[in-house]
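sorry to bug you again but im stuck and you know this stuff better than me. what follows is a protein written twice so to speak, once as letters and once as structure tokens for the fold. id like you to explain what the token line says about the fold, in plain words if possible. anything you notice is useful, everything is just below.
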Amino acid sequence: MAEVAGAFPIRVGISACLLGQRVRYDATHRYDANLVEPLGRIFDLIPVCPEVAIGMGVPREPIYLVGNPAAPRAVGTRTPALDVTDALTNYGRRMTQELKDICGYIFKARSPSCGMERVKVYSSADSTMHLPLECGVGLYAQALMLDRPLLPMAEDEPLRDIAFRENFIARVIAFHGRTADVGEN
């Protein structure tokens, strides 16, 4: 991990599965060296898995979003009574306070907890019988996006594009510079 401008390490939150932690519902990860290695040389990557943090085990029943795409519920794929909507949303709000020193965030794309966009939302708790209504936002990501709208955030998939990644890095460094200036006043 490197420091930029010699101040202090620039901390960036990241979905833990992207760092190789086996925290996904099926006890796998989504590590991508072409993404993590270059970012890890610049930033101090802080892993977070909201589903594990709210007490869901590994492995666990997968969850998905159902209902109104503007305000979906996160429920179990096999057990619709397993509703973790409030837990994910509350955890996201709590983490906006606990991670006040981060200068960016990298989310796992299309995740019902971490996806920033293009997360499938189904019309009912029986996804086998229905097509997705449309796309929504993961509940943890949504809480962070609402509470920290100026924080640079991106999903892993677009960050594989070098130009997009360079832009994200520049935004994080600029955000870091702005917060360092504010801290000095």
In short: Residues 1-6 have pLDDT under 50 and may be disordered. The beta strands are 11-15, 44-48, 63-66, 73-76, 102-107, 119-122, 132-136, 153-155. The two ends are 27 Å apart (CA to CA).
